[in-house]
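Dear colleague,

Thank you for sharing your sequence with our group. We've completed the structure prediction you requested, and as agreed, I am returning the results in plain text so they can be pasted directly into your records. Please verify that the sequence below matches your submission; if there's any discrepancy, let me know and we will rerun it promptly.
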Amino acid sequence: MFLSKYYFILMESANNITLLNSRGTPYHALGIEICEMITSYLQDSVYFQKNGDTVNQYASLVYAHGWLSAGVFLGLYNTSFGTLDFSDIEFPDHYDSLHLYEKTERYHSMLETAIKSVSCFPGKGSPLALAADKSLNEVKKSFKRGEELMKDGETIPALGHLCYGYGWLDTSVRAGLLQVHHNFHLFTTEF
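Please find the predicted structure tokens below.
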């Protein structure tokens, strides 16, 4: 799949979001914030595309995809979003492969550190504890898959899995499911 098609599918999904929680509730506000983050990163991808930066265009799209998926899982909204596989994304013939390698290495290091900086926040008796566990497991699964792909020299899908996991991680922190203990600079939430 080409990046333009991936963008179109994500943008269409973002535009068709229906918030599920009543206005004035914390979960409604959270849904709005997550939608704003998704839109922001989709807009970033357009900026990067216009400037010929395929690597950051792709990273922004997959990061937005992670936020989108996590919000659906949390029951904050519905969308036309179905199963979307970013692992078969095709880059154009000419892109900065050194930048791709550098960004993949950096995101691997950042996500690894970020995972070690959080813990599940809700108490075990809360239904939200299960959501926190599922979210953190999704992050760890994406990290592990990205790491495996890096070892296999599959840098494009490796970066995708790392960015997707990071989207889940930042959504989970924003939702109050994960508590950050240190390395606060690695997260999009204000502390």
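Summary note from our side: The first strand starts at residue 18 and ends at 19.

Kind regards,
the structure core
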